[in-house]
Amino acid sequence: MARVISVEAERFPIAGTFTISRGSKTEAEVISCTISDGGHFGRGECVPYKRYGETIEGVREAIDAMRGRIAEGISRSALLDAMPAGAARNAIDCALWDLEAKLSGTSVAVAIGAVPLQALETAYTLSLGEPEAMAAQARVNAARPLLKVKIGGDNDIARIRAVRQAAPDSRIILDANEGWSDDNIVANLAFAAEQSIALIEQPLPAGHDEILRHIAHPVPICADESVHEAKNLEALVGLYDAVNIKLDKSGGLTAALVLRDRARELGFGVMVGCMVGTSLAMAPAVLLAQHADFVDLDGPLLLARDRVPGLVYQGSLVSPPDTALWG
């Protein structure tokens, strides 16, 4: 019997508003796909990202275009050659992993050598806003051990100061989303170091970050928009200290595992992050993130409504997925 894929665009409301340097949104727009093989099925979810030229319609069309190959039983390794990295390939790849686990009776965690699985401490993200508003967010979440703070404007030193004062005991990641410039990065890095910031994500626009090779890194700097696949890594040596691996960028768990292992070989720290999606999108990333240096898989915590069943979060600890969800 040929495999059959179904595709669905879904919307999940965000609790409040999620704001970064590129804009705000009040809902997570995701695409889920299900691949059926007889009485078994596997699921995957992706989040199209405008920054990379993706749209809901375009990603759905890219998945639909693979119907014939999926019916023929395309493998995950062949999928890497058949589709470019990105959200569409991620949804298919994760659905294939889930399907393989159900067909074989071997969990994905066992298949990738991630056992024994552990609960992970995830960052919790604070949206970009004026310093006072960000301080209020930080104060509410000051008991969380790791905060990820969206910045990337003209007043970032004030934002950093306000958040640090409101959450003095939390480790803090700053995520500028390409919002800094050659003119302010040295001063911003120095102030971040004074405030004991743990990590800074993608301070400069991808491809316009050569200055990072020539300035001090008093706080480790992590590539996000600058890295999608393992082939991107060698060019980043000397520019960045760590890389943020997201399944929607790498195009699935298969490519993300290669990226993670190559990053370790080259001496990069590893962060596993996410777009704002549901527990179905986070589940494979939780397996990938075992033993990562930083984990940012708080997507479901930012939603007003998640899938059922979903991942279990206790404060900032996220437990491995139950196989009823994925894998």
The best one-word shape is globular
Q: Which parts are unreliable, with pLDDT below 50 for 5 consecutive residues or more?
A: none
- What is the CATH class designation of the largest domain? Alpha Beta
CATH architecture of the largest domain: Alpha-Beta Barrel
| Number of distinct helices | 11
* CATH homology superfamily of the largest domain: Enolase-like C-terminal domain
Whole-angstrom Rg: 19 Å
Order of helices and strands: EEEHHHHHEEHEHEHEEEHHEHEEE
* Count of distinct structural domains: 2
Strand % is 15-25%
Roughly what percent helix? 25-40%
Largest sheet: 8 strands, parallel
Write down the overall mean pLDDT.
97
Give the end-to-end Cα distance, rounded to a whole number of Å: 22 Å
Q: Give the helix/strand class.
A: alpha/beta
Lateral strand order in the biggest sheet: 5-6-7-8-9-10-11-12
What would the CATH topology of the largest domain be? TIM Barrel
Tell me the total number of β-strands.
14
Model description:
By secondary structure, the chain is of the alpha/beta class. The protein folds into two domains: 4-107, 2-Layer Sandwich (Enolase-like, domain 1), CATH 3.30.390.10; 120-318, TIM Barrel (Alpha-Beta Barrel), CATH 3.20.20.120. The protein is 31% helix and 23% strand. It is built from eleven helices and 14 strands. The protein has helices at 56-64, 67-71, 76-82, 87-104, 108-111, 131-140, 156-166, 185-194, 247-250, 253-265, 279-288, and strands at residues 4-20, 23-37, 40-46, 120-121, 124-126, 146-150, 171-175, 199-201, 221-223, 242-245, 269-272, 294-295, 313-314, 317-318. An eight-stranded parallel beta sheet has the order 5-6-7-8-9-10-11-12. It has a three-stranded antiparallel beta sheet with strand order 1-2-3. Helix 1 (56-64) crosses helix 4 and helix 6 (131-140) packs parallel to helix 7. The mean pLDDT is 97. Residues 131-222 form the Mandelate racemase/muconate lactonizing enzyme C-terminal domain. It is an enzyme of class 5 (isomerase). Belongs to the mandelate racemase/muconate lactonizing enzyme family. InterPro entries: DgoD-like, Dipeptide_epimerase, Enolase-like_C_sf, Enolase-like_N, Enolase_C-like, Mandelate_racemase_C, Mandelate_racemase_N_dom. The active site is at residues 150, 246.
